[in-house]
Amino acid sequence: VILDEAEKMSKLISKLMALMRNDSGSEILDIERYDITEQIGRIIEQKQILIEQCGAKTEFSQTESVYVWADEFLIEEVFVNFLVNAAKYSSGDKLIRVYIERKGKKVRVCVYNRGNGICSEDMNNIWRSFYRADKARSRESSSCGLGLSVVSAIIEAHGQSCGAYNETDGVVFWFEVDGEE
Residue 31's pLDDT is what? Predict the structure, then answer.
């Protein structure tokens, strides 16, 4: 497991370095058709121990296959970032809800976590490198404020969008990729 994770980290660093050097990112993307429902289910299962350690529970009820065109490895990094952040920053009954929305040829993956919202000033800045909305909490953890900027770079390299918005009892982070109608 450690060797697999080290190999993934090495591959991620190489791809991110290439992303940062290449404005469009198109040269280093390995776009393929795959089932994002299967990918999300697998990642939730792999991260279940971490989620439980945070006292959170996850709901993902999608069973129908949803096929997308994207770099599966990089999209995994995006989803893992959203899922781990949701587990860390959820509060109350610590519910994390993952769902997929189809918008024409786009597929939007949403990760909701119950808890405090993000103030509007922070909402505009969370995608910047080294920015941390909750300075006190990030000092306690090993966070350095790079996760969401990496997410943004990956999604931008795909020519897609990502974002976040508050709900009355939590926050939703989302990203889009090309899908099939």
Answer: 93
